[in-house]
Every structure is written in C-alpha cells, then in structure tokens.
C-alpha cells in the first residue's frame, strides 16, 4: 500500500526532494555561518574593548568621556566606558550613567545579565589594576544582544543566495522533467496507437537511459506476443483450409445420396446430417474470415461508397432470404464515403445482415437503412426476430458465444468478426432491442468525416 503522503508523480517527488535538500542546505549554511562569524565578531569586538580599556587605564585622572545614549548602546553596539576608583567603591565617570553595572571582581572578560530580556545581557571587560595604588580601574561594557543580532543577520545573509537559487533550481528541474516526460508521452502514444495485428517495436533511442531497460523489456514481450499471435493465426488458417476440402467432399456426397434416401425416419435423419454439415462448413468459413481479421490490416485504397457496398451485401444474401421468405429492404437517402478496406466493410455489413436474415421470423422483414442521427452517418440493420436478452447484448461480441434461444446453424463468430473489423477502421457497432416493435437493431456508427 502506498504511503498517504508519498506523491505518485515522479515530478512531484523530485520537487519535494529538491525543496528538502535546499532547506537542509540553508539550515546548514545558517548554522555554519552563525558559528564561524560569531567567533570572528566576538574576537574582533573583544579586542576593541581591550584596546579601549587599556587606553583609558593609562590616565591617572578620570578622562572626559564621550556621552553614549541608550539607543547607541543597545542598537548600535557603542562601548560604555566606566572609570572606577582604585578600590572599586565609587564610579568616577561613565559614558552612559544610566547603566547600573558594578565593577567586576578580577580582570578580563565576563558575561553579566541584569534581567531576563535580550537587552539585559552584557559583555564586560575589566582592565587590570595599575601599578600605582591610586590608579583608577577601567571597565568597558558592550550589549551582548547587539552582537547576536549582527551574527544572526550575517548568517541569514549568507544563506540568501541558496534561498534565491531555489526557484531557479525548481524551474530548471521542471524543464528537465518536462522534456523527459515528453519523450515518454510520445512513446506511450505510439504504444497506445498500435493495433493488435501490426505491433512494432518502440525505438529505445527516444527514451532516457534510465527508462531504456523498461522499453527493451516491452519490445521483447511484444516480439513474443507477435510470434504467438502469428502462430495462432497460422494454425487457424491451416486448420480451416485443411478442413475445407474434406467438408466440401462430404457435402457433395450428401447431395449425391439425397435421391437414394428412403422415405420415413431416414429422411429426417438425413436432414439433420445435412444441417450439421452445412453448419460445419459455415463455421470453417467463419474461422477463415476470423484469421484474416487478425492479420495486419490492408491499406485503404480510397473512399468507399457505403450505399453501393450495402446493396452488394443485400444482393449476396438474397438466396438465404428467399429460402426463409424474408423481405429484405434497403433505404439509403444519405451519401456516406468511408476510407477503409472494402473487405473489412463487407465483413461488418455481411455479418450483421446475415444475422438479421437468420434470426428474423420466417416470412418476416429485414430493413437496412443508411441515414443520419444527430448529424452522424449510421447504418441500421433491423429485424423482427426474438432479439437478445439485455444482459447478453455485450457478450454476443465474444467469440463462440451464442445467446440463449439462438437459432441453430450459427457459429458464434459473426459478431466477433464484425466487431474486430469495425474497431480497426474507426467504426462502432451498437446492439439494442427495438423499442417500436419486436426484434433487434444493429447500428454501425460511421466516422463523422464520412
């Protein structure tokens, strides 16, 4: 199970990791700059405090001190100079009298906090006592909060280039990922556009090196699939061709035996035998058609007049229609031209009209109409047969599937052959039970460009 916070997009993952990497780099830069620059600032400021204190400690009398305000001390980092008596009991002079900070014991640097606020932390340097007993003591004070602000400001300034580089890096990454994904989308379109009968390998040179093994594995699988389909198609063609000759010979023998069949039960059994042979011959022809449908599609030589092709299909099936006393009519007020192989279009319409004639009631009617529905050219084949149960309308396109109550003699391949031919040429077949009368409506939706 995928973690809930883990993005599915590779681009989103790369962006997330890049942002995290930049944030870590910024944090590391801030910390390193804070430590390094802090040492530099503290060392520099401490040296300055020592020099100021030592320069004032050489005076035997309290010197005149430049006045320092609170704002200067807290926000500008000005030194506060205090001159104490030799015993440290009294403050002789101070550049900021408002700072109440006693003389520290001993000499050197110390940190003093007068309160809990950031402005109450002070860095103090107390000069050593002079060689003379009455020499004054000098103490220099600087606000420690000012130092920290300078250090933090400098550390943040050092990380500013990385922060500014973040959107630039994200933009560059987006461009790189988009360029790589374009090649992947092109490969995906090529794969999706491939037909079952004409599968070609995908060029490995078009994809990134990291995706090349996947494409190579797909090409290998495609080759095995192509070989398996070719073997299956060749077996079906060979089997159908081998069966065609003996079944034709059996049909001729049955015709020759018809006159020698005695009256009675033998006639009925002979009729069943003849029906079974005809069904076997029809199944063999359907298998041959199916094997041709699975073969690579032939290129269309030019636009095909659908109305003329429908008339030929109706005329070819008139023998079967006359045997069952079916009235077959054709109506074609619409002119439709389709760019598809004529054999594929005949396969679609022949199977649909043949089914309609076979399943229409004895002495019934089959109508073939070429017209437009909402501006779309369609061909409707209508019969007055029993129709198809609604739950089986889609299953009848499966090979060798026959709906419940289907008439004898069928093979369950006609609609599968018609569907395969329609899909490979941009047509769509819809089956529905008629709402105006009993029977089935088979609708072929032609391309709108027709």
Strand percent estimate: 5-15%
Major sheet strand order: 2-1-5-4-3
End-to-end distance: 48 Å
What's the gyration radius in Å?
49 Å
How confident is the prediction overall: mean pLDDT? Answer: 81
Oligomer: single chain
Q: How many strands?
A: 12
Question: What would you say this structure looks like, in words?
Answer:
- It is a single chain.
- The protein is of the alpha+beta class and about 450 residues long.
- Helix content is about 50%, strand content about 15%.
- It has helices at about 10-55, 70-75, 145-195, 210-255, 265-295, 305-315, 320-325, 340-360, 415-425; strands spanning about 80-85, 90-95, 110-115, 120-125, 135-145, 305, 325-330, 335-340, 365-375, 375-380, 430-435, 440-445.
- A hairpin with a 6-residue loop joins strand 11 (about 430-435) and strand 12.
- The longest helix has about 50 residues, at about 145-195.
- The model has no long low-confidence stretch (mean pLDDT about 80).
Which tags fit this structure?
450 residues, alpha+beta, 5-stranded antiparallel beta sheet, 9 helices
Short description:
This protein is an alpha+beta fold and 450 residues long. The chain contains nine helices and twelve strands.
């Amino acid at each position: 199970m995928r973690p809930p916070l883990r993005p599915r997009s590779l681009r989103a993952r790369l962006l997330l990791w890049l942002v995290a990497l930049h944030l870590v780099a910024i944090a590391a830069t801030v910390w390193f700059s804070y430590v390094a620059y802090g040492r530099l600032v503290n060392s520099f400021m401490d040296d300055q405090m020592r020099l100021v204190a030592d320069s004032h400690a050489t005076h035997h009398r309290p010197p005149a001190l430049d006045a320092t305000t609170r704002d200067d001390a807290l926000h500008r980092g000005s030194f506060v100079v205090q001159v104490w008596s030799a015993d440290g009991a009294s403050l002789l002079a101070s550049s900021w009298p408002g700072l109440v900070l006693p003389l520290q014991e001993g000499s050197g640097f110390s940190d003093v906090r007068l309160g809990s606020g950031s402005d109450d932390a002070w860095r103090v340097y107390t000069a050593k006592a002079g060689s003379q007993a009455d020499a004054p003591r000098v103490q220099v004070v600087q606000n420690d909060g000012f130092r920290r602000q300078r250090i933090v400001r400098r550390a943040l300034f050092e990380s500013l280039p990385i922060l500014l580089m973040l959107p630039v890096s994200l933009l560059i990454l987006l461009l790189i990922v988009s360029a790589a994904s374009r090649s992947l989308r092109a490969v995906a379109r090529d794969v999706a556009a491939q037909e079952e009968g004409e599968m070609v390998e995908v060029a490995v040179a078009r994809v990134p090196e990291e995706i090349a093994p996947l494409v190579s594995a797909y090409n290998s699988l495609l080759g095995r699939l192509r070989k398996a389909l070719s073997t299956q198609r060749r077996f079906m063609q060979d089997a159908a061709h081998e069966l065609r000759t003996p079944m034709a010979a059996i049909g001729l023998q049955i015709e020759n035996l018809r006159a020698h069949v005695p009256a009675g039960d033998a006639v009925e059994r002979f009729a069943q035998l003849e029906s079974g042979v005809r069904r076997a011959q029809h199944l063999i022809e359907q298998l041959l058609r199916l094997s041709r449908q699975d073969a690579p599609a032939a290129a269309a030589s030019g636009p095909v007049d659908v109305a003329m092709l429908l008339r030929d299909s109706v005329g070819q099936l008139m023998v079967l229609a006359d045997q069952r006393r079916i009235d077959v009519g054709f109506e074609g007020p619409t002119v439709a031209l389709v760019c598809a192989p004529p054999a594929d279009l005949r396969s679609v319409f022949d199977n649909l009209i043949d089914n309609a004639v076979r399943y229409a009631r004895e002495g019934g009617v089959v109508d073939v109409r070429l017209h437009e529905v909402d501006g779309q050219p369609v061909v409707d084949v209508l019969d007055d047969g029993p129709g198809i149960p609604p739950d089986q309308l889609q299953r009848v396109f499966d090979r060798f599937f026959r709906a419940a109550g289907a008439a004898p003699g069928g093979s369950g391949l006609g609609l599968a052959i018609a569907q395969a031919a329609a899909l490979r040429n941009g047509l769509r077949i819809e089956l529905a039970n008629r709402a105006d009368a009993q029977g089935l409506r088979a609708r072929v939706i032609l391309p709108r460009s027709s």
